[in-house]
Specification:
By secondary structure, the chain is mostly helical. It has one domain (about 5-230). About 75% of the residues lie in helices and about 0% in strands. It is built from 8 helices and 2 strands. It has helices at about 5-20, 25-40, 45-70, 80-100, 105-135, 155-175, 180-205, 210-230, and strands at about 140, 155. Strands 1-2 form a two-stranded antiparallel sheet. The longest helix has 28 residues, at about 105-135. The chain starts with a helix and ends with a helix. About 50% of the residues are buried.
């Protein structure tokens, strides 16, 4: 039962290292999270994680090139390390383990896993693509004009990219199960998580209380908890 997913996860991790998308430690951490997710929610969970990784990789690669072109090389990200992998996928991994140990709640935990990756996708796309394609930037606390790329600064374009990322995760969920209100709530959860990321960035991260990895983990956790409240 587990042979095929193990092979697929290992091959994907090796490819990510070969193409300089993940460090070796990051790839190993991704494998552990992938196994945890599959053990609980099965192939849909792997699909959520894979879609996030592909979307995030494409957006980050594009963002790195464009940021260098506009003089923001210090903001360009390279390979993801173990901490970054946990920040984006850790909540999903924990939900996968919860589904394994409490299979009677698998439906709820699966949609919560989708919400976590919806938020991770929204945050990555909005921050990477919104930074380079945004026209006007606003501080999320004051709504006054903000500085491109600064923590807690958002743009309309960034929010729309984020919603697009959440929609893709929501569509994967509905294709795996059925069309219904869950699609709408997964998109909303991703947006709530994305805005939470900006709020945390404008407050705790700016003050140095927590780092970016903690902010990323918390935004995915908030999205999952939002779905818990809804369902």
């Amino acid at each position: 039962m587990y042979f095929l997913p193990i092979i697929i996860i290992l091959v994907c991790a090796a490819a990510a290292v070969a193409f300089n998308k993940l460090t070796i430690a990051g790839a190993a951490t991704g494998c552990v999270i992938g196994f945890a997710i599959f053990s609980g929610v099965g192939w849909p969970g792997i699909a959520f994680m894979s879609a996030f990784f592909l979307l995030g990789t494409a957006a980050t690669s594009r963002g790195r090139i464009e940021k260098e072109n506009i003089g923001m090389a210090q903001k360009a990200k390279g390979k993801r390390n173990a901490g970054q992998v946990i920040a984006n996928g850790g909540a999903g991994g924990l939900l996968g383990l919860a589904a394994y140990y409490f299979p009677q709640h698998i439906e709820l935990l699966t949609v919560m896993t989708a919400a976590a990756f919806s938020s991770a996708s929204a945050d990555t796309l909005s921050s990477e693509l919104g930074t380079i394609y945004g026209k006007r930037f606003y501080d999320i606390l004051s709504f006054k004009k903000g500085v491109r790329g600064k923590d807690g600064v958002i743009s309309i374009e960034g929010l729309l990219f984020g919603i697009a990322g959440s929609t893709i995760i929501g569509m994967i969920y509905t294709m795996a199960f059925e069309w219904g209100p869950a699609l709408f709530w997964i998109i909303i959860a991703g947006t709530v998580g994305n805005l939470t990321d900006s709020l945390l960035g404008a407050t705790l991260e700016r003050k140095g209380t927590i780092g970016n990895d903690a902010v990323n983990f918390l935004n995915t956790a908030v999205a999952a908890l939002f779905l818990l409240l809804i369902f």
